[in-house]
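Homework help thread (please don't just give me the answer)

Our assignment gives two proteins as sequence + structure token strings and asks us to describe the second one. The first is just a warm-up. Here they are:
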Amino acid sequence: MAKIQLAAQLLLVFTLLALQCPQKCCAQGAIVSAGGPVHRGMGGASTAAPTSALGALYWNPATISGMEHSELEVGLDLLFTDHRVTSTVGPFSGSTEAEPGTFPVPNVGWVYHLQGHPAVTFGIGVNAVAGFKTNLPVDPTNPILAPAPVGLGRVSSEATFLQITPVFSFAVSDQLSIAAGPIVTTAQVAVEPFIFDSANADATYPSGRATRYHWGGGVQVGAYYIHDCCWHLGASIKSPGWMEEFEFYGQDENGLPRALTADIDFPMICSLGLGYSGFENWLFAMDARFIDYKNTDGFGDPATFDATGKLSGLDWSSVFALALGAQRRVGDRCYVRAGYTYNQNPIRNSESFFNIASPLIYEHVLSIGGSYQLNDKLGINLAYSHYFENTRVGPVVLPGVGAVPGSSITNELTADFLSLGIVMRQ
């Protein structure tokens, strides 16, 4: 009982820390593809391969029934990004590096097999599941970043979506488990200039800084099936995260207050997984995922300006993603992992201009990782992911004008994740 109380206290502490830390992260569009170092080392594949508490909770809650132990896992990702914007309008051309900095992404997962009731397993995850961030200075040599109203001026953004996911999993038989639970989402968004509301009278846009965290909710269900001792199947659906309307404080051209609003929801995600453990000391996993950005408020609304200069949305496409992972046990205490993730790009070239502040254009990710068990109760985990450089090129688009002939804007982005963590088993 003392161990359970300690685990609950630790979970509460790390939950509060996670809610207070700035989490800005990228992958599969705005969605972070993995939670914690074990899951990251597997390339984010876990729908049918429960290798850790965070991985099991992240994509398929039913897999927590397949874990060998009750455990508390704590992870911290450090994200490093390189973002460059180049624009050309007529004879003028320039290039600017963003300075988004390095920022932490905390993750916590707890799984508990109910004593005396082997069919019942509880779990809760606290994960930074989506976001983006960039910070581009005013640059008179770069047409798109020239001082407003000639250009956009300074472009700065940060968005965080953090989810709290309590789940209940029930083993119907030795082979089949099913699970369900609510999804509580809290998010904060800040964009400068705020083009999701009308322009000021002098044709400039106000700055939209989020006044508070906004809240939303959804549900998830999952199933996990062990065909035999070697083959494992999994499936899950996460409903859209229906968010309250985002509200911002802004200023008009005279410095007087303006109320700004935006509708931004979290997309529905469907996952299918396959796992194989037929080779001694080996585990292989494959996930296929569908992320429905197209039918999500804010992300999927058309990227068009109305008569007031308000941008309707980002016009993202729904995407499919594939994750592959492999784990090998080396001796009694050590595990090594490798993974690959591919996702279609939700941003088309024609939308490059509208996504300067949200340049999430990753497609290919390679990951490696490992774990070492210090003893039967405590282990340490480490992983690294590289997001290969990708580019989107499209025209500059102006309200009331449309695409400017002969213009172009190029977003270039690459990133690296370093992930650290510990696991405490009962």
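The one we have to describe:
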Amino acid sequence: MYLSFREKAIVYGIILGDGYLQATGEKNARLRLEHGIKQKDYLIWKVKQLPSLFLGRPKFLKRVHPITKMTYSYVRHQSNSTPFLGKLRKVFYPDGVKIIPPNLKKFLNHPLVLAVWYMDDGYYSRKPDDRTSYLYLGKVSRQEAETAKTALKDRFALETSVVDKKDKGMALRFFAKDSKRLGEIIGKYILPLFSYKLFDPVTTCS
């Protein structure tokens, strides 16, 4: 299977973000996408960018929250199983649990990777006394968060601080200056659906 540089960048961003790599054998894995029904267009966009990986149509499903007992609608799509994804699973899930790998900088090889990651897990606070951005990393160790911090600084000259968001896990915080720079770096790759996550309105992709 051949994936272009752009397609690989999107895959890397998805894996860092909300995507899940599921083992399908000793050497292969598949990529599972899930989004709430309000973000179905975003999932469809991802699928359309990766036509050699995703076939068929997404499934529209419902689940009951175990605590609130409320019913949630969501959309799911799973990719083909490939050795390429199997190799990535060994990097990002070495013991079956997702990590931020020590060689993260290798995968942050284009702003599009960061843009997809941020669309998945980024947040911008528009409070007048805040105006900072966050990139949520999930339940990772502080050392892994520091790895992400260093990789963003080395690749994109972005300064961040590591924040423990307790139940939400670790996050990287971009103060106002670097929130603005983040928008300048990834703004043209951000879908209009997520323009609210940027420091200032910019021209986003179509």
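TA reply:
I won't write it for you, but here's a hint about the kind of observation we're looking for: Residues 104-197 form a domain with the Endonuclease I-creI fold (CATH 3.10.28.10).
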